[in-house]
Every structure is written in C-alpha cells, then in structure tokens.
Design brief:
Largest sheet: 5 strands, mixed
CATH architecture: 3-Layer(aba) Sandwich
Radius of gyration: 14 Å
Structural class: alpha/beta
Helix content: 10-25%
CATH topology: Rossmann fold
Number of strands: 5
Shape: globular
Length: 141
C-alpha cells in the first residue's frame, strides 16, 4: 500500500491564530532512523491563498510533487489565508511552524532552505531576520 504524497496539518499559535500547511516527506523518510533531511519552506504567490489547501498545489514545488516528482527533502508548504493577505506572511507564525517541523521530524538544521513565488521577495527580511542563525538568505533577481 502506498502512502499519501502530502499530509495536511494546522498549527495553532497564540490560540486564535492558525496556519494550514502541506507537508511532504521523501519516500525514504523513516522517523525511527537517525538520518536527517534538508528542509524546504516554500511560500506561494497571490493566487494560492485561501482556505483550500489544494490551491497550494497549483504552482511550484507542490505542483511538481503532486504530479509524481520525488525530492530528497522535507517540504513545508504553508497557505496564506485570504483574510490575512493584506499583512502578507507573518514571521512569528512561520517561525512557529518551522520550530514545530524541526522538533517533529528529522530535519538537518544546517540545510534549511526557503523558496517561493512572487509574493515572497518583499518579505524576506521581515520574516527571517529573527532566524538569521538558521537561514542564509540570498535574494535572486
């Protein structure tokens, strides 16, 4: 029996705020092994926001994974709610999400990567400045 490609999760932070996300684990991932895996946080663009996690699979890495492409990393694909779109990605929520994933899964903390679509570049500094010891951010133009 094959396992599902994605699992869904919701992180509650400060009780009233939640963050939906898709989680991708490589096919060789085994929670009981000591092997650690790179982590890729992929932030979507404007068109994937909302409350339907299937929207996250419309573009980028989630689209490729949903089509059967396999990768040797743990992938986290959060979804920005429409209601919070005016504020963009919230650094504390993403930080809490990454903290939770790093605690729950075998993540190589020296190989944490961030990628995303058009919505992301304007928010790099705000989101990751508090985690500068973990991330090495490189803006591509």
């Amino acid at each position: 029996m094959s396992r599902p490609i994605f699992s869904e999760g919701t992180l509650s932070a400060q009780v009233v705020r939640t963050q939906q996300y898709l989680l991708y684990l490589p096919k060789d991932y085994n929670a009981t092994e000591k092997k650690v895996w790179p982590l890729v946080l992929s932030l979507h663009g404007v068109g994937e926001r909302g409350t339907d996690l299937n929207n996250v699979k419309k573009n980028g890495l989630p689209k490729l994974i949903a089509a059967g492409k396999e990768y040797p990393f743990i992938g986290v694909f959060p979804q920005l709610y429409s209601a919070t779109f005016a504020n963009g990605w919230e650094a504390d929520i993403l930080g809490n999400l990454l903290d939770m994933i790093e605690k729950e899964y075998n993540v190589d903390r020296k190989r944490v990567y961030v990628t995303g679509l058009r919505l992301v570049p304007q928010h790099y500094d705000e989101i990751f400045s508090s985690r500068s010891t973990i991330f090495s951010i490189r803006k591509l133009t």
